[in-house]
Amino acid sequence: MSNSTQEGAGDAWTVRRILTWSADDLKKRGSASPRLDAELLLGKVLGLSRVQMVIDPERPLQKIELAVYKALHQRRRAGEPVAYLLGVREFYGRLFRVDRRVLIPRPDTEILVEVGLAATRHIALCARVLDLCTGSGCVAISLGKERPTTRVLGIDLSEDALVVARENALRLGAVNVGFLQSNRFGSLAAGARFDLITANPPYVSDADMEELAPDIRDYEPRLALEGGRDGLNVARAIIEEAAPWLAPGGVLAMEVGAGQAEAAAALFERAGFDEIKRTRDLGGHERVVSGVRR
């Protein structure tokens, strides 16, 4: 949206006009959801919902609004994810703050929360939960908010990610959720035991890394994406190390990439887990593998 474009336009930049122009521009640059992207960004600038913009499409933009929107559009045009531009992403019915320090929560990961809740239903009032590779804290905080009497500890290797997670816990009132910097189990107190361990480890294989969409590959933290040659480097280590940290009958539940569930289930079996299950996401992919400590 150059100055010459504005000057030659004749009429004002209204909601309808700016959305049409922006969506067309983003579509040309390969956005998978150009209209939605434009609506979300404009809604952020104007403080309006998508419905409110539909109701009043001829509302003109003030100069400052147009300038702020232009800056956001240029960043989206360059490939920056919408969630980072908005600063928030919804997960399990709650808004989580996100930025480039953390992986953007995906709807598929909500299946990990569902599996964790089901696994601890019989001890819902007193479960002890550990969430590895916690990132924004979306899984740990969701489990804690759904079960306010449980005790949840989120762990991540990245201290930067933990700053975001702690802020989310404070904003969402997750008083029963704490966070610790650690490489997997390395910083836990000796003798600690958990009824549930969840993990969403990095699981993108080396071969698949460069095939990722640019708005993932170039913006989201590679530490949260890179899973090694077969995508299971971190998952393999967690599965091999988890049993001593689980209470008898405790459950390990882990998100895996599409096509990795069979290999992950074999790792669970080799590590001595029973009742190994594979749970599908809404797209039909086997997304979460879980097992019970013998």
UniProtKB/TrEMBL annotation:
GO biological process, one term: methylation
GO molecular function: peptide chain release factor N(5)-glutamine methyltransferase activity
Amino-acid positions noted as binding S-adenosyl-L-methionine in the UniProt annotation, renumbered to this chain: 156, 200
Pfam families: Methyltransf_31, PrmC_N
Record-annotated Release factor glutamine methyltransferase N-terminal domain positions: 18-87
Protein source organism: Chondromyces crocatus
Domain called Methyltransferase: residue spans: 128-210
Classification via NCBIfam families: hemK_fam, RF_mod_PrmC
Protein family according to the UniProt entry: Belongs to the protein N5-glutamine methyltransferase family. PrmC subfamily.
Protein EC: 2.1.1.297
Record-linked InterPro entries: HemK-like, Methyltranfer_dom, N5-glutamine_MTase, PrmC_N, RF_methyltr_PrmC, SAM-dependent_MTases_sf
Listed name of the protein: Release factor glutamine methyltransferase
Positions that bind substrate: 200-203
Annotated catalysed reactions: L-glutaminyl-[peptide chain release factor] + S-adenosyl-L-methionine = N(5)-methyl-L-glutaminyl-[peptide chain release factor] + S-adenosyl-L-homocysteine + H(+)
Purpose: Methylates the class 1 translation termination release factors RF1/PrfA and RF2/PrfB on the glutamine residue of the universally conserved GGQ motif.
EC primary class: transferase
Keywords: Methyltransferase, S-adenosyl-L-methionine, Transferase
Keyword Lipoprotein on entry: no
Xref: Gene3D superfamilies: DNA helicase RuvA subunit, C-terminal domain (1.10.8.10), Vaccinia Virus protein VP39 (3.40.50.150)
